[in-house]
Each structure stands twice: as structure tokens, then as C-alpha cells.
Amino acid sequence: MEGIDIEVSEVGLRDGLQSINQIMPTEAKKRWISALAAAGVPEIEVGSFVPARILPQLADTMEIAQYARTIEGLNVAVLVPNLKGAEQAIKARVHKLTIPLSVSETHSLRNVNRTHLQMLEEVGHIAQLIKRLPVDERPILEGALSTAFGCTIEGTIPEDRVVEIAVALMEAGCDEVGLSDTTGYANPVQVKRLIGKVWAAIGREHLKGIHLHNTRGQGLANVLASVEMGLTTIDSSMGGIGGCPSAPGASGNIVTEDLVFLLEAMGLKTGIDFDALMAARNVVATALPDVELYGFTPDAGLPLGFCSR
Ligand code: ZN
Q: How far is the CA of 306 from the centre of ligand 1 (A)?
């Protein structure tokens, strides 16, 4: 995107909300999206097209996605678990579809009850569906390499396996892949090594983004490793919402507010205005009063003399 060094992709409305029981009203989600866009957040993953009985929190994804599409200049992304979800996403005219594929096959079976082969077949069907659209209406299809840095069931994930799946996703018709530290296992050295290996196999232009969790406090260190390597899209969640029900006090995704401060302080342009970002945080705090919002920068405030945007 023009004038921006690093694209912050806000995933709070999907990854954050999906593990929160208190349902955020549709109108509040719209206010949140508007406030994020007004702050200059270039991309928002607004929801996931999964059956409402599985994730009631995201049952309004169609309405939310269609609303987000009315905001000029905002990149609208959604998660889709399968072809059916992709059909919905295309109907909502989103810019980007992300289909997650767990590099840990055990995790894939537990999570979506599908083997790698079955998931890759599904990706192929989605790619076909997209190809049938007029060129200027085709969304980007991203394959997310979940559990790429380790799995809570399988443990260590061989890096060659991650590379193999990245290649398979590209062959199945993805435009790009993303690395996903679903479990918060990653460290900066591993992040750099894995980016290098995937690039060597599929080319730099096909891996631009990373999705990090702060489960063990390594999130921002992993961001630094990613941007030093040259990735240009970083996922984060406002207030780090999401968390982990079995680990009280542990935040979920890396915190958008701290990420923006880190990047801007290092001289990397995000296009995001910090004060306006805090206004968006207030929308969440008001709509979800029982949910703890994380972030060091919101608590401490910006350093004296600091100027963003
Ligand atoms: Zn995640």
C-alpha cells in the first residue's frame, strides 16, 4: 500500500472475538471497524464464515463484511474454513480470503476434521471458484500455515514439513501463504530461518505476512525478526483480546497498539494515528466491559515528544 512500510492487519474481530463468550453486538462491531478504519488501519479481518452453531459470536459475518466493504480504501479480509465459506465470502465481495491449513495434521483433524489432502483439495476447489470470476473481482486467496512454529498436540513441527505444505498450497492455487504461530511457540531465530526456507521454495512475493500470538511474551521480538527479514504484513489484535481460557492473564494475539508504537518508533510507517487508535480501543472497552484489554502503550501512554503519522 502506498506510503506505508508495514501493513497492520487487525484480526481482533475474528481471532480475538472467537474465543470470547460475551457476544459483541453487530452495531458495536460496525463502530469498531469504522473507528479502526478512521485511525488508518489498512486491513481488517472482519470475521469467519463458519456455521453459526459452532461460533455464535461470528454469526453476523455476512452483515459485517458487507458493511466493511462500504468503507473506502479499507482492505476487507475474512477467514474461510471450506468451499461453502468461500462462496459466502465472494458473495460479500471481500478483498481477501484466508484458509487455514494446520501443518500439524493431528491439529487439522481435531480442528476441522480434515487431513492435509482433503484440505488441499478444498483449496483447489476455492481457487477454481475464484478463477471463474471476472479478473477485477477476484479476491486474493491466502493459505495460512497454522501451527507452523509448533503444535500443542504434536509438539515440534519439522520445518521441511512447513515448506512442503507451503509449496502444496501454492500448487493448489493460492496466491500467497502466511506463517501462523497459532500456539505462541515461535522465537525470533526460528522466525527468520523459516521465512528464509519458505521464500527459497516459493519466492519472496508469495510470503509477505505473519500471524503471531503473544502467549509466551515473544510476540514483538518475533515482529522485529519478521520486519528485519522483509515481511510487510503483520497480524495483530486490538487490546490483544482473545487470550487463552486455560492460561489466565495470557494475552492472545500480539497487541495492535503496542505493535503500532514499535513500528512507528522504529521509523516504519503504518499510516495509523495513535490517538485515533485509542478511540477505537474505547469502542471495544465500552462494548465488552468484562473483557480485559491488554497493551503496555495504552497503559503507559506515548513517550513525550513522540509523534505518529
Ligand atoms: Zn491466531
A: 30
What count of Cα atoms within 13 Å lies in the side-chain half-sphere of residue 40?
A: 20
The domain limits of the chain are: 7-300
Say whether 244 is catalytic. Answer: yes
**Structurally, what CATH architecture does the domain formed by 7-300 represent?**
Alpha-Beta Barrel (3.20)
Reported pTM: 0.96
Q: How confident is the model at residue 249 (pLDDT cuts 50, 70, 90)?
A: low
For residue 163, the CA-to-ligand 1 centroid distance in Å is: 20
Return d(Cα 2, Cα 287) in angstroms, integer.
Answer: 33
pLDDT in tens, 110-138: 888 899 999 999 999 999 999 999 999 99
User: What are 142's strand-pairing partners?
Assistant: 98, 176
Write out the three cell numbers for 149: 512454529
